[in-house]
Amino acid sequence: MNKIEKQASLDKLKKTIIDDKVCPELADSATQLVFGEGDPSSEIVFIGEAPGKKEDETGKPFIGASGKFLNDLLEKINLDRSSIYITNIVKYRPQDNRDPTKLEKQAFLPYLMSQIEIIAPKLVITLGRHSMDCFLPKRKISEVHGQPEKIDGITYLPLYHPAAALYNGSMKQTLIDDFLKIPKLLQEI
User: Fold this and answer.
1) Is 124 left (phi over 0), alpha (psi -120 to 50) or beta?
2) What is the pLDDT of residues 68-119, one digit of tens each?
3) Closest CA to 161 of 22, 48, 77
4) pTM, entire model
5) Taking the C-alpha atoms of 24, 62, 131 and 113 in order, what is their torsion angle to the nearest 10 degrees?
6) Domain coordinates in residue numbering, the chain
7) Could you tell me which of 90, 113, 116 has the C-alpha nearest to residue 103?
8) Among 3.40.50.2300, 3.50.50.60, 3.40.470.10, 3.60.21.10, what is the CATH number of 3-188?
9) Are 93 and 52 contacting, i.e. CB atoms less than 8 angstroms apart?
10) What residues form DSSP beta bridges with 86?
11) Is the CB of residue 144 less than 8 Å from the CB of residue 158?
């Protein structure tokens, strides 16, 4: 598929989530669906856990403090948001920014898998333990962060969530170091 066809497929998938009434209680408490954004032909897809307050207001993923830090990290490896695709597992903001539940993640997972299938990236980068658990279950992020793993032809790279690094200074350097591995990893894939 070319970029235009991929974008059309993603737009259709977004409409399907709304039509299928995925997690109606979450949808009712959210302002809008936060589907994802970026280059539909990107080699890299970043996946967070769920939208926060700013994301819910704007409909765009990762635009708060975590998003600013993510932009800084992308800049360190000569990438910008327009060249990647970024989304979350759960597409509606959980009330009070609580963690998404297992059932909410399971409800959205087939749609997330469809997103990945449409984009067909070389590398899927999970941001935080919630998104990592969807692809690399039964692992501890503290043990596997920065270590790529190939499953069914896709390489997954679990990283700490930028928000965690903002609140924990020692984690910040770890996330930066892991991020610096991305260009070499892309070349190897």
Assistant:
1) beta
2) 999 999 999 999 899 999 999 999 999 888 999 999 999 999 999 999 999 9
3) 48
4) 0.96
5) 70
6) 3-188
7) 90
8) 3.40.470.10
9) yes
10) 37, 46
11) yes
